């Protein structure tokens, strides 16, 4: 396990008398980190467009034995599209709402992601990070809920929490983002517009791709890169808040500073991945304040680490890390954060 874990005696203490507030933590980040820079923002867009274009050229020209590499590169580049939409959803890309909404929709259309659906559900995750009762991203099941579930649900949950973690964001995308019942009535017109944009795009894109490339073209040029994107979407989202030392808490004992500062993980990935994905892995400052643009996350992280280093957690991406998470972080435990599926039978 490569995580740098704070000794328990030094961890953030979420007792109700603790004076630390999230506003106080935010105030330790330099003001420059909150400033939007249009040149840097649009440079990120150009980088992602160039990388995705390069990826599709590679797919078109690669012999069969190099296609997996081309698919993986293109999927990683498409993740950059998502991160641009992510900044737009948090209004940290531009000061103009119409720019954020327009670019947010455009960047997510190739991923078949309805922008406002994602934006609204993602805001819930930020407001209730690591809240066992309210967070909607990778919240572990309680033991009693798991044991009470039917066999099919148990199998799906075991897969998403185990070796098939990289498909979990596909399920999240399909189950949550197209169901109007997941949104407040006042938000449903926006959600419908985003869903309509995705449906229109798909109705034009897929028949055209089929006409020119056939069924194999759908797999070659869309499905495999899309699954590559979901590999990173699942992995980033899982790792951001899931190691054996990060505790989800019921709403009665949940504390926002603990959740955002100590319950959010910084993870270093290969630099080319971080470059194409616009530093989404520098995640602690993003949870302290969603107003920090992606290109300022590293500076903000440095400031936070200088002030709050003992409360923060860091790790490096590795397959050993994923084996630990997928092999241990299964069922919520009130004292030890997680227990594995194996422990339920012991």
Mean pLDDT: 94
- Main β-sheet, in a few words? 2 strands, parallel
Total helical elements: 15
Strand arrangement within the widest β-sheet reads 1-2
Proportion of beta-strand residues = under 5%
The percentage helix is 55-70%
Order of helices and strands: HHHHHHHHHHEHHHEHEEH
What does this structure look like?
With 346 residues, this protein is mainly alpha-helical. The chain has a domain at 36-127 and 164-244 and 260-315. The protein contains 15 helices and four strands. Strands 1-2 form a two-stranded parallel ribbon. The chain has a two-stranded antiparallel sheet with strand order 3-4. Residues 1-11 have low confidence and may be disordered.
List the topology elements.
Elements lengths: L21 H5 L11 H24 L5 H23 L7 H12 L6 H13 L15 H6 L2 H11 L6 H9 L11 H54 L14 H7 L2 E4 L2 H6 L7 H5 L8 H12 L4 E4 L2 H10 L2 E3 L3 E3 L1 H4 L2
Parallel strand pairs: 1-2
Antiparallel strand pairs: 3-4
């Amino acid at each position: 396990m490569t995580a740098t874990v704070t000794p328990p005696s030094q961890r953030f203490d979420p007792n109700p008398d603790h004076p630390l507030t999230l506003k106080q933590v935010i105030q330790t980040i330099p003001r420059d980190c909150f400033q939007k820079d249009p040149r840097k923002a649009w440079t990120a867009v150009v980088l992602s467009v160039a990388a995705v274009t390069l990826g599709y050229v590679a797919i078109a020209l690669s012999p069969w034995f190099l296609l997996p590499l081309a698919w993986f590169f293109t999927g990683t580049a498409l993740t950059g599209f998502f991160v641009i939409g992510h900044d737009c959803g948090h209004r940290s890309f531009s000061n103009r709402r119409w720019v954020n909404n327009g670019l947010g929709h455009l960047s997510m259309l190739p991923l078949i992601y309805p922008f406002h659906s994602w934006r609204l559900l993602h805001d819930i995750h930020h407001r209730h990070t690591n809240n066992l009762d309210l967070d909607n991203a990778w919240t572990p099941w309680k033991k009693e809920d798991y044991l009470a579930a039917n066999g099919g649900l148990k199998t799906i949950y075991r897969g998403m929490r185990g070796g098939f973690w990289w498909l979990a964001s596909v399920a999240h995308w399909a189950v949550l983002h197209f169901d109007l019942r997941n949104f407040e009535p006042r938000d449903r017109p926006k959600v419908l517009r985003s869903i309509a944009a995705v449906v229109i795009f798909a109705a034009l894109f897929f028949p055209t791709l089929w006409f020119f490339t056939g069924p194999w073209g759908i797999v070659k040029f869309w499905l495999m890169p899309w699954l590559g994107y979901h590999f990173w979407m699942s992995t980033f989202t899982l790792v951001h808040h899931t190691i054996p030392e990060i505790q989800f808490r019921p709403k009665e004992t949940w504390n926002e500073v603990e959740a955002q500062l100590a319950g959010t993980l910084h993870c270093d990935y290969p630099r080319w991945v971080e470059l194409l994905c616009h530093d989404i892995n520098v995640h602690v400052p993003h949870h302290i304040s969603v107003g920090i643009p992606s290109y300022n996350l590293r500076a903000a992280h440095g400031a936070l680490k200088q002030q709050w280093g003992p409360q923060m957690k860091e790790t490096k991406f590795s397959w050993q890390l994923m084996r630990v998470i997928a092999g241990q972080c299964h069922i919520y435990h009130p004292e030890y954060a997680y227990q594995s599926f194996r422990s339920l039978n012991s």
